[in-house]
Amino acid sequence: MNHEKRTFEFYVLAAFFLVFVLFLYGPLSAILILSFQGPDGGLTFPLNGVSLHWFYNLFEKQAVGDFGASFRRSFTLGLMVMVVTVVVSLLAGLAFRRRFRGSTVLFYATVASLVVPSIIISLGIGVVFQQGGLKPAWYSSAFGAHLTWTLPFGVLIMFAVFNRFSPAYEEAARDLGATSWQTFRHVVLPMISPSLIGVGLFGFTLSYDEFARTLMTSGSYNTLPLEIYGMTTNVTTPVLYALGTVTTLFSFTIILVALGIMLMLRRRQAKIS
């Protein structure tokens, strides 16, 4: 009886997972398939031939849209946000290991932006820049807007990491004569490095595809999400699908590289221990 019950639960969970995967990746698979339309293909099924024509078309000069420049802006902005998110989250995690005056207020101020609508934050930052006589730009106002989104997640992750981190390792290093910097460099940092890579990946991906907090803060030059959104109103060829396929594969590549680095670090730690 118990075996039959477990079998039934397994099939129910498997069916639920299958529906979830289809819901998540179904629209993405449609974009992927339509990006291989023939030269005379349109934006809908059925396919009119199969070719790589629209992928080659991405590298040609477009009448509407600037793929290359918008991609470089999104990539650069993502790297900037990633670095700051990792550094600030690490410092915050170290600082909050001990109680200090104002720590509660600082914590809630850090995570408050998670409950504020993204478009309101974007609008507010854009208005502040304009009122201050500064021109909103992707590398300044959008950079700050993205940090209001990535930093709370990074800080919360590092809080969880250090909450499970045993101080016994640091005490053992100090007993052996290590300085505070040596303890951090050779004991703490290697142990939390997979988590830092995760924070960096989280920060980069959140910034790379962020739309709402970029809408009012990017200035005259679009990031890739804004460029794609703008193209949906005036591009009538599958080149838009080809762009979606390429950017999706790029995102998955970044994730796989990060996971590979984390796996490599864990294997190294396992060999050392």
From TrEMBL:
Q: By its UniProt entry, which SUPFAM superfamilies does this protein fall under?
A: MetI-like
Give membrane topology per the record: Multi-pass membrane protein
Q: Which stretches are transmembrane? A: 12-36, 75-96, 105-129, 149-166, 187-208, 239-265
Quick check: keyword Transmembrane helix in the entry? yes
Keywords for the protein's UniProt record, in alphabetical order:
Cell membrane, Membrane, Transmembrane, Transmembrane helix, Transport
Q: Where in the cell is it found?
A: Cell membrane
Gene Ontology CC, one term: plasma membrane
Q: Which segments constitute the ABC transmembrane type-1 domain?
A: 71-258
Broad class of the protein's primary localization? membrane
GO BP terms: namely: transmembrane transport
Under the heading Pfam families, the entry gives: BPD_transp_1
Q: Which family does it belong to?
A: Belongs to the binding-protein-dependent transport system permease family. CysTW subfamily.
Tell me what this protein is called: Putative spermidine/putrescine ABC transporter,permease protein
What lineage is this protein's organism placed in? Bacteria, Pseudomonadati, Pseudomonadota, Alphaproteobacteria, Hyphomicrobiales
